[in-house]
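Subject: Protein record for review, amino acid sequence with backbone structure tokens
Why sent: The fold of this protein is of interest and is recorded here as tokens.
Enclosed: The protein record, placed directly beneath this head.
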Amino acid sequence: MGIDEWGGGQHEQSDVLVVTTNDVPGYRVERVIGEVFGLTVRSRHVGSQIGAGLKSLIGGELKGLTKTLVQTRNQAMERLVEQARARGANAVLMFRFDVTEAADVGTEVCAYGTAVVIAPLA
């Protein structure tokens, strides 16, 4: 089973299917392994903070911060998939992201879901 679930070709093909739904049409859950997550914290460098501050005065997208957040989310998701694979899962159901500020020095991104083993319906 191969996937490229996170739009725009951001991730290479994986043997772990990641979905935001409770189930996968055409498949049954054979075993629930449990919660898995991928966590990363990224700090912002001074240059991007100054640029973001100036940009916020005139409006518009903060492209540097957007790029950093996308990279951070990708890393968190990759860690989630690694953890699911290490625990014997071939799918993660109910996938979500949680994003919080980490002590005013960066952004914490946690990707989480339920690791399962799925099999095609007969």
In short: The chain has two helices and four strands. Confidence is low (pLDDT under 50) at residues 1-11. The first strand starts at residue 17 and ends at 18. Residues 36 and 83 are 6 Å apart (CA to CA).
